[in-house]
Design brief:
The complex is a heterodimer of chains A (263) and B (266). In chain A, 75% of the residues lie in helices and 2% in strands. With 263 residues, chain A is mainly α.
């Protein structure tokens, strides 16, 4: 456990060197919130609720989705791919640690840094600046757990995509396709309740909605029963277990074809 | 005129070499084209789902928004083709490789950008043209020679604005220690809102997105010349001026950066 905690700490410190450039990421997110605010204000003109969601709920849903998108895009797939191309992956593989958990530790370091410099300031602006008015309920207690599980699902998808570059040795195309599919099907661009019912039924069977829609609906509808939230977390745990198992299996296969150019 | 021909010749030679090198990775080209197509189609899906619920967005119908989006895709295609190297500037600045561009008797911006001709732009171009044809036939738009000519001018001006936004964002890498990636991402994030009518913004934000970060000129204002020529604001006709002016500004900022760069000593 110790080497992994050390890695988390090390990555965290390394990221803090770049805290000033993250000012731009934060500014970008705040601007994104502003754009979302005006766009949806215009969509909601003349309607109190659309598909059972008020403007306030939709705005919180999408503004949070924007902030979470930054948290869930640590570029794990890119890091793995770059390490294959420049050969530094071999250094990781020679270490007496598990590669998947080592990568997770690095990603976690990024995640903690990100929560501190992007997510929390964005939340403050959302509730103090935009005065988005959020109902308090037990859903909010489940929200942080939901976020952590989403982070793991997102990591597992990125990790297995990074592994595909063991075969293709390039990542742009695959990563861009993933981002496009994930953001559309998870509710990150448009809330899940806006999709036609038949499409929604299919989307609820996919892992993508477990990344954004599940934690976001905990915030936007915080007054469901404990059982409902527990069931939602259950779905997330199911995907974490399934995808992590898949990563293990895939890693073992991909490892066999790995070619690292001399470092 | 001789210099123009000279530059075109150099550009063509660089481009041919680059495309030849890329051909080594044909699978990568196919995967990247699919990825590009996916991200464009995603946006169309978002519009479709949105317009299932609402009849119009700030007074614009689905077909009209689709036309604006097609125009947007076309105006960002030259960015993909010609200035994609801006994404790599940060590596060259930090590693010191950028110093080599000072040593040739040609324009540095030109030289730097000519080193990469991003062929992913083809799938963007194809989708843009297809969407434009589809949307304009749904809108029963009449195309005559004058309109096609106007389209050429509008497209040229809009793509100048789109290029300038990225050149300015990338040039910040000359001054930022952490590199220009967050600024470039910020620019892309804002730019992706250009297919939406700027009329949804009120007060200071409309001014911000019209003049300060002129994303309105990437698609919405120029597209109005075709959608509602009768009611298009005067600003829409000013887009060539805005395009050229903004590009000069971008070039000025780039040149300042080039002047201030001191290399890494290696």
């Amino acid at each position: 456990m110790k080497p992994y905690l050390g890695t988390i700490k090390g990555t965290l410190i390394a990221w803090f060197i770049y805290r000033f450039s993250f000012f731009f990421t934060l500014a970008g997110n705040l601007l994104y919130m502003t754009l979302i605010f005006f766009l949806w204000k215009s969509i909601y003109s003349g309607a109190d609720t659309i598909h059972g969601m008020t403007f306030n709920q939709t705005f919180i849903y999408l503004a949070l989705a924007g902030s979470l998108f930054i948290l869930f895009t640590p570029g794990t797939d890119w890091t793995i791919s770059n390490r294959i191309i420049d050969g530094s992956l071999i250094v990781d593989l020679l270490k007496p640690v598990d590669f998947q958990i080592l990568t997770l530790a690095r990603t976690t370091g990024f995640g903690i840094f990100n929560v501190a410099v992007i997510t929390i300031p964005s939340l403050l602006v959302l509730f103090l600046g935009f005065r988005a008015d959020m109902k308090l309920g037990i859903g909010l207690l489940f929200f942080p757990i939901g976020i952590m599980l989403s982070f793991l699902i997102s990591f597992a998808i990125d990790f297995s995509l990074g592994l595909t570059s063991f075969y293709t040795e390039s990542i742009w195309g695959i990563s861009t396709t993933k981002t496009a599919i994930t953001s559309l099907l998870s509710g990150a661009l448009i809330p899940l309740p806006f999709f036609p019912q038949s499409v929604q039924n299919i989307l609820r069977l996919l892992p993508f909605q477990a990344i954004y829609n599940i934690p976001l609906s905990m915030v936007t509808s915080p007054n469901l029963s404990v059982l409902d939230y527990a069931r939602a977390l259950g779905v997330q745990v199911f995907w974490v277990v399934l995808l992590f198992a898949f990563c293990r299996w895939f890693y073992r296969r991909a490892f066999r074809v790995l070619t690292v150019s001399g470092g | 005129m001789r210099t123009l021909r000279y530059y075109l010749k150099i550009y063509f030679r660089c481009a041919v070499q680059y495309v030849k090198a890329r051909m080594q990775y044909r699978d990568d080209f196919i995967i990247c084209s699919i990825g590009m197509a996916f991200s464009c189609v995603t946006t169309i899906f978002v519009f479709r789902i949105l317009f299932n619920t609402i009849p119009n967005l700030a007074g614009w119908s689905f077909d009209e928004i689709l036309f604006i989006y097609a125009f947007f895709l076309l105006s960002i295609t030259p960015v993909q083709f010609f200035v994609d190297n801006i994404w790599f500037l940060r590596y060259d600045i930090i590693s010191g490789a950028f110093i080599k561009y000072y040593l040739k008797p040609i324009n540095i911006l030109f030289y730097y950008m000519s080193e990469r001709v991003d062929v992913k732009g083809f799938s963007q171009l194809a989708l843009g043209v297809a969407t434009l044809i589809y949307a304009s036939s749904r809108l029963r738009m009449e195309w005559n020679l004058a309109r096609i000519l106007l389209m050429g001018i509008a497209w040229f001006s809009a793509s100048l604005v789109a290029m300038s936004i990225l050149i300015i964002a990338g040039s910040t890498g000359f001054w930022l220690f952490g590199g220009s990636l967050p600024v470039l991402n910020l620019a892309i994030k804002i730019r992706d809102f250009s297919p939406y009518p700027t009329t949804v913004f009120t007060g200071i934000f409309r001014i911000l997105f019209t003049y300060l970060i002129p994303i309105g000129f990437v698609a919405f204002y120029p597209a109005q010349l075709f959608l509602r020529p009768g009611t298009a604001p005067l600003l829409a006709y000013a887009s060539p001026l805005i395009g050229i002016g903004f590009f000069l500004l971008a070039y000025f900022i780039w040149s300042k950066g080039v002047d201030s760069y001191a290399g890494t000593g290696s």
